[in-house]
Amino acid sequence: MPEGKIVKALSGFYYVLHGETLIQCRGRGVFRKNKITPLVGDEVVFQAENDLEGYILEVKERKNELVRPPIANVDQAILVFSAVEPDFSTVLLDRFLVLVEFNHIQPLICITKMDLTNHEENEKISAYANQYRAAGYEVILTSSETEMGIELLSPHIENKISVFAGQSGVGKSSLLNVLRPDLELKTNDISSHLGRGKHTTRHVELIKVGNGLIADTPGFSSLEFINIEMEDLTFCFPEIQKASEKCKFRGCLHVSEPKCGVKTAVESGEIPNYRYEHYLDFLQEIKERKPRY
């Protein structure tokens, strides 16, 4: 039986890419019975009725899946944040990073609109970029206007499924248009999906960029830590996880425990204060979360 990848889901149809051919498929009833919903990004086995239509018979095992946006087998999340207009937000970036880390998706931080920064803002953003790099993240500074940093971003997209995520108005659609200029005609369309974000949309599509695929989605429409437990949070901050190896007590939450390696690393400046403060805020948020039944 032929195999392919779902690149678009719309109105009960799944569009499966098989080589260079797009086959419009429906899901077999067995999926509903087993409560399996095929997702964009799924590798599937299908049966072709003819050259353009068929049925999905099997969904292959996923390496990860997201609920909002509904997509599977994501290799990386490109977190797009603007340097200015709107101003760069470490707390929002850290929230996105925690969600991405928890879902075992490789994050890439892309800071846009660098052409709009003055000298002081430029220095500030560069300092933040270096701190995130020190924590273990890849950070690329870009401008859609001058195409600064695009040559650094492009290789990261090759042979991967990427999701763009970030707050409204940061220039995600502009970045997509630079990466693939023929999308120019779809600017408003992409803006409504990616920018102002009609977060109720169920329409997710994978767009080919070079040899990679970028998900045209509303991004993460929920930024709540629904499934994350307090014990998980350490593992969502790479530098905190590393420093936690020096904690005296196993299961240390790095709040008020004695001989805590993380607090020592914060005091020595190894971990920036704002990262630790966000960790504490998120921990409190998880602690106060209402139980779900």
Number of separate structural domains: 3
Output the CATH homologous superfamily of the largest domain.
P-loop containing nucleotide triphosphate hydrolases
Total strands: the figure is 13
Distance between the first and last residues' Cα: 41 Å
The percent of residues in helical segments reads: 25-40%
> What share of the residues does DSSP label as strand, in percent?
15-25%
Morphology call: globular
- Helix-and-strand structural type: alpha/beta
Instruction: Tell me about the largest β-sheet.
Output: 5 strands, mixed, barrel
Question: Care to describe what's here?
Answer:
With 293 residues, the protein is of the alpha/beta class. The protein folds into three domains: 3-61, Beta Barrel (OB fold (Dihydrolipoamide Acetyltransferase, E2P)); 66-216, Rossmann fold; 230-287, Ribonucleotide Reductase Protein R1, domain 1 (Orthogonal Bundle). The chain contains ten helices and 13 strands. The protein has helices at 29-33, 90-102, 119-134, 150-157, 172-179, 187-195, 230-233, 238-244, 261-267, 273-287, and strands spanning 3-10, 13-18, 21-27, 43-48, 53-59, 65-66, 71-72, 76-82, 106-112, 138-141, 161-165, 204-209, 212-216. The strands form two sheets. Strands 1-2-3-5-4 form a five-stranded mixed β-barrel. Strands 6-7 form a two-stranded antiparallel sheet. α2 links the parallel β8 (76-82) and β9. The radius of gyration is 21 Å and the shape is globular.
